[in-house]
Amino acid sequence: MAKSAEAFRTISEAADELDVPQHVLRHWEEVFGQVRPMRRAGGRRYYRPLDLDLLRGIRALLYDQRYTTKGVQKIFKEEGVKYVSELGRRAAAGESVEVRPILPDDEAASNAKSNGSDDVLELGADTLVSRGMPLHVRKALILLLGRLEKMQDS
């Protein structure tokens, strides 16, 4: 008899469900402070459904999207726990996990090639976005550009 979707999972059940070794889950707890399973007497871990969504999101970012640990930590900082959990829910549903691009305020602008002007960020061959534009608008434009390029390729 299988457990219900709302039931708590032990570390071995969570590891089997995520197809990772148990020591990887323990490591993720140390590296990502956002992962906090409930602990019972004796230190035994119990993962809630929300914990599993978060772990699926981390797994998708690390294994499928090939992010580094620092890259995932940056996503947590920029996008938040809910965003990574949503990626995990999508991965569990078999949907594609599409990650929004992350642009720090000044780093991306200073590292990107400029087209002879300090107030322009080059995104592609013919695409320029003003650095004076708010960060969330730039992120949305870059996301749309990526989707358009995928459509154009197909």
- Helix/strand class: mainly alpha
The coarse overall form would be: elongated
Order of helices and strands, N to C? EHHEEHHHHEEH
Q: Which CATH architecture of the largest domain?
A: Orthogonal Bundle
Radius of gyration over C-alpha positions, nearest whole angstrom: 19 Å
Strand content: 5-15%
The helicity comes to 40-55%
What spatial order of strands do you see in the largest sheet?
A: 1-3-2
CATH class of the largest domain: Mainly Alpha
- Overall number of strands: 5
Can you summarize the main beta sheet?
3 strands, antiparallel
Fold blueprint:
Blueprint: E1 9-10, H1 11-18, H2 22-31, E2 38-39, E3 45-47, H3 49-64, H4 69-79, H5 81-92, H6 107-111, E4 120-122, E5 128-130, H7 135-153
Antiparallel strand pairs: 1-3, 2-3, 4-5
Tell me what the structure shows:
The longest helix has 19 residues, at 135-153. Helices cover 53% and strands 8% of the residues. It is mostly helical. It has 7 helices and 5 strands. It folds into 2 domains: 9-92, Multidrug-efflux Transporter Regulator, Chain: A, Domain 2, CATH 1.10.1660.10; 107-153, no CATH class. Strand 4 and strand 5 (128-130) form a beta hairpin. Strands 1-3-2 form a 3-stranded antiparallel beta sheet.
A few lines on this structure:
With 154 residues, this protein is mostly helical. Helices cover 53% and strands 8% of the residues. Helix 4 (69-79) packs across helix 5 (81-92).
Protein traits:
154 residues, Multidrug-efflux Transporter Regulator, Chain: A, Domain 2, 2 domains, three-stranded antiparallel beta sheet, 8% strand, elongated
